[in-house]
C-alpha cells in the first residue's frame, strides 16, 4: 500500500468530448492521493461518464494532462477498476 500524501491520480482536462472541436467537458482538475476514497457525483448530463472515459483513455478527443503516480500516460492499466457502460 502506498503512503498517504502520494499523488496517485492528477487530472487536468482542459477539454474532452466525443467529436473533434466539440468539448463536452471543460476545465476539470483534481488530484487523488493514496488512501483517499473518492466519488464522482452530479446530475444527468454533467459529464461524469465523459470524465471517467477521459481518465481511462477511452476518448480520443482529450486536451489536457492525466498523470498516474506522476507519469503522463495515454492508456493506463487499472488492475482494480471495472468500467461498465449502461448503454
Structure characterization notes:
This protein is mainly beta. Helix content is 10%, strand content 34%. It has one helix at residues 48-56; strands at 7-17, 25-33, 61-68, 71-72. A four-stranded antiparallel sheet has the order 2-1-3-4, with helices on one face. The mean pLDDT is 82.
Which labels suit this protein?
ATP binding; ATP-binding; ABC_transporter-like_ATP-bd; 87 residues; P-loop_NTPase; 10% helix; Rossmann fold; globular; mainly beta; 1 helix; 4-stranded antiparallel sheet
Structure in a nutshell:
The protein has 87 residues and is mostly beta strands. It is built from one helix and four strands. The N and C termini lie far apart (35 Å).
Task: Give the topology, please.
Layout: E1 7-17, E2 25-33, H1 48-56, E3 61-68, E4 71-72
Antiparallel strand pairs: 1-2, 1-3, 3-4
Cα radius of gyration in angstroms: 13 Å
The CATH architecture classification is: 3-Layer(aba) Sandwich
Task: Report the uncertain regions.
Answer: none
Tell me the strand percentage band: 25-35%
Main sheet properties: 4 strands, antiparallel
Question: For this structure, what is the CATH class?
Answer: Alpha Beta
What's the helix-strand series? EEHEE
Report the principal-axis shape: globular
Please estimate the helix content: 10-25%
Number of strands: 4
Please identify which CATH superfamily we are dealing with. Answer: P-loop containing nucleotide triphosphate hydrolases
Category from helices, strands and their pairing: mainly beta
Largest beta sheet: what is the strand line-up? Answer: 2-1-3-4
Query: Distance between termini?
Result: 35 Å
Roughly what is the average pLDDT, rounded to an integer? Answer: 82
The CATH topology: Rossmann fold
Instruction: Work out the helix count.
Output: 1
- What is the count of distinct domains? 1
GO molecular function, one term: ATP binding
Domain ABC transporter: 26-71
InterPro entries: ABC_transporter-like_ATP-bd, ABC_Transporter_VariousFunc, P-loop_NTPase
Keywords: ATP-binding, Nucleotide-binding, Transport
